Amino acid sequence: YPLTSIPDYYGIDALLTEEHKLIRQSVRDWVESFVMPNIDEAAQNHTDLPNLMKELGKIGALGPYIPEEYGGSGLDQISYGLIMQELERGDSAVRSAASVQSSLVMFPINEFGSEEQKRKYLPKLASGEMIGSFGLTEPNHGSDPSSMETYFKDMGDHYLLNGAKMWITNSPLCDIAVIWAKNEEGKVQGLIVERGMEGFTTPETHNKWSLRASKTGELVFNDIKVPKENLLPGVTGLKGPLSCLNSARYGISWGVIGAAIDCYCTAVQYSKERRQFGKPIGSFQLQQKKLAEFLTEITKAQLLCLQLGNLKNDHKASPAQISMAKRNNVKMAIDIARESRQILGGMGIMGEFPMMRHAANLESVITYEGTHDVHLLITGLDITGFNAF
Ligand code: TGC
Ligand code: FAD
Q1: Active site residue 369
Q2: Complex ipTM value
Q3: Distance, CA 202 to ligand 2 centroid (Å)?
Q4: Nearest-CA neighbor of 57 among 125, 4, 140?
Q5: Which intervals hold domain Acyl-CoA dehydrogenase/oxidase C-terminal (predicted)?
Q6: What is the H or E stretch that residue 222 is in?
Q7: What are the residue ranges of helices labelled H in the chain?
Q8: Which of 159, 160, 337, 375 has the fewest CB atoms within 10 Å of its CB?
Q9: How far apart are CA 66 and CA 85, in angstroms?
Q10: Residue pLDDT, tens place only, 245-272
């Protein structure tokens, strides 16, 4: 479909700067040339795109808001959002790779790391030379991370780390993992675990029907001796990992608009070309209802993200506001992926079209970074003051 058909129904582009539009265009061009021609095969074969992290590094998609002195680009939050949107138009796996590296690995090192940690890790993470993963979720504790069991003990000249993390994006590929564990007082702290440390393994999770172009696995810590300089000194408590989630959830809110746009544009074009009963199917009211609702929901999601980005640029976005955007926009995108597939009839189940892939990916996206229901409860708490967890 022609790129000019990408919806901007409320003229939101007028609210972007020239720099925003240039950044969006450069990521869009890269997605068109690198992701779109290869993604169906990668997803069908359950393989990741070759050299994905280095390619993302080359286009400046890793840690775009990290200061330039540490290898980032010092960009604003709307630029970050636009990058995520374009990446997820290609595939949620590509946005996931950039989300984890940027918001879950570079963000905590930049916010809570020592000067030595920032200089050691951030430039290599920004270029994609080093791959990071983020370990919060455990086999027995997903929505309730404060009950985590992974712990470390102070052994004098090092920490001794034991436990396991599950469902970890890029764990089988990672060079380092920012992981969250309890100290001897039961307080959550962050540690940087490096591949090669004795007792550290990263088994892959096989047979996913979702995010098939992304690697997922475990992080297993068996009596690992972690050097003391690998503790993140700047934060104690669950607010450490949850602040990272604020950044990643914000990026997802933008990202999923990209997946929805890809499905919408495909459905519009198909509905104009496919003829039944002697007419284009786009001339039938029932198909028009679907398309009209898609455009309405995409437009609402775009406005939500743009204002959330403004709030974030001013450091005024509350976790509950971010939660609302994550929940609303992921639901919007998964609904559009499922409904738009129907517009394509039987063709909609084929790999030549993106709907099934996006719909399957979005089943993970609606679950990770806080499930849809957890985000509902966060809004419920914000409204009423009553904790319903
Ligand atoms: P609660 O008692 O409410 O809070 C504990 C402490 O944390 C503070 N806090 C936050 N701080 C910053 N940002 C937030 N969003 C925060 N939410 C809470 C809070 O102020 C408190 O601080 P303090 O100083 O008083 O101690 O915590 P709770 O145990 O009741 O849990 C709350 C709940 C359920 C909302 C939270 O734990 C939650 O969000 N659960 C969902 C877990 C989740 O999202 N996991 C994501 C794992 S990472 C992932 O999925 C990556 S996928 C990436 C990809 O591939 O793209
Ligand atoms: P559970 O917490 O067991 O929830 C099961 C169901 O119960 C859900 O529907 C949930 O909404 C509901 N529920 C739970 N508590 C309540 C309640 N109080 N009230 C009402 N309903 C409730 N984690 C990481 O740390 N790092 C990663 O990189 C990462 N990548 C991931 C990649 C993929 C592909 C996937 C699928 C997950 C990833 N995750 C990652 C884990 C993800 O964050 C968790 O799956 C998610 O937080 C939910 O946890 P859970 O799967 O244990 O579900």
Answers
A1: yes
A2: 0.98
A3: 19
A4: 125
A5: 237-378
A6: strand 216-227
A7: 18-30, 39-45, 52-58, 77-90, 92-99, 107-112, 115-127, 239-273, 285-313, 319-343, 355-365, 372-384
A8: 160
A9: 19
A10: 999 999 999 999 999 999 999 999 999 9
